[in-house]
Amino acid sequence: MLRPFDYYRPRTLSEAIKLLSETGAAALAGGTDLLVNIRSGKESPQVVVDLKDLPELHGIHLEGDKVWLGALTTMGEIVNAAAFRGPLGILSEAASVVGCCEIRRRATVGGNICNASPGADTAPALLALEAEAAIRGPGGARSMPLPAFYLGPGRTALGPGEILSGFFIPRPPEGSRGTYLRRTRVKGMDLAGIGLAALVIPGHGKRNHEVRLALGAVAPTPVRAREAEILLQDQVVDALSLTRAKEVLRRSISPRATSLRASPEYKREMAGVLLEMALSKLLGEEYAG
Ligand SMILES: Cc1cc2nc3c(=O)[nH]c(=O)nc-3n(C[C@H](O)[C@H](O)[C@H](O)COP(=O)(O)OP(=O)(O)OC[C@H]3O[C@@H](n4cnc5c(N)ncnc54)[C@H](O)[C@@H]3O)c2cc1C
Question: What distance in angstroms lies between residue 108's CA and the mean position of ligand 1's atoms?
């Protein structure tokens, strides 16, 4: 049974911030995490503030050389958005594996990040894209790189009364390609036991590419794998560089990253497998692994 709570659906950002600050309410986006938690008794807010009518939290558009992605954008909208094809396609690939069709119609990207699950599927893609989190609150507007937004499992940098309004995503150069791969326990609906996002940004010639890697469900928060990135940067990816990068990637996985879905040993093994799959997909002929 759903515990009773007071429900507000403000029409303005200032009203929402006031309600959140004064009542310590829970913010509601799609509700696919929050309502499940309320139903199970994991959370029991007295007040819930629905964010859906706040125009500042919607939309996908270009702002200079960055794409603005409103926090309330659903997974389904990301999958269908022209902006998230090509260089930014990595995010729609990640959004496309979340839950099922019904969940993707409700679940928002902002909720996925604010829920701060280490295995949230859009997080590695947003980390690889170097997205910035945009925040509105009693003190005005502020923004921060996504890694700073994550403080731990279920914990974010949002202060009292603050709302994640969206993300600024720098558009990688044309020709950049990314992929998001994950392993789940079952073929149907399941959360990631491990997820890996890889983005290759081409340079001039075979060696001048940048490789960005980010992992989900391997540490208390989703993480960039910078050490492994350095080993692949500006290199022809051959058997040797791949073996080194896999080793570094495996070592970056916390020995305490155990979950219902996968042991740390499994995650370490699969991190290497996913890296090899991703590079072979993204680098094609250049890949000599
Ligand atoms: C059946 C099922 C399958 C699922 N499968 C997957 C999956 O495969 N992969 C995956 O990653 N997740 C999965 N999920 C989890 C969930 O769907 C996602 O985390 C979803 O993106 C959460 O978004 P939401 O809009 O529903 O958030 P809500 O449930 O509304 O909110 C989640 C949390 O974020 C806070 N919040 C939301 N928006 C904001 C905001 N703008 N500012 C401040 N705080 C905010 C809320 O207060 C709450 O604490 C699944 C869930 C279900 C029920």
Answer: 6
Taking only the tens place, the pLDDT of each residue in 108-163 is 999 999 999 999 999 999 999 999 999 999 999 999 999 999 999 999 999 999 99
Same domain, 124 and 219: no
Q: 30 and 119 in one domain? A: no
Identify the residues whose C-beta falls under 6 Å from ligand 1: 26-34, 36, 51, 57, 71, 98-99, 103, 106-108, 110-112, 114-115, 120-121, 158, 163-164, 189, 191
* CATH code, 17: 3.30.43
CA distance 183 to 110: 23
Report pLDDT for 185.
77
185 and 113 part of one domain? no
The count of domains in the chain is 3
Long-range CB contacts (< 8 A, 24+ apart) of 279-287? 279/198, 279/200, 279/211, 279/232, 279/237, 279/242, 281/179, 282/177, 282/178, 282/179, 282/198, 282/200, 283/200, 283/237, 286/206, 286/236, 286/237, 287/237
Tens-digit pLDDT profile for residues 53-105 = 999 999 999 999 999 999 999 999 999 999 999 999 999 999 999 999 999 99
Q: Which domain holds residue 238?
A: 177-283
Domain membership of residue 1 (yes or no) is: no
- Same domain for 77 and 101, yes or no, is yes
**72 & 148 share domain:** yes
Kindly tell me if the per-residue pLDDT of 183 is higher than 90. no
In a domain, 289, yes or no: no
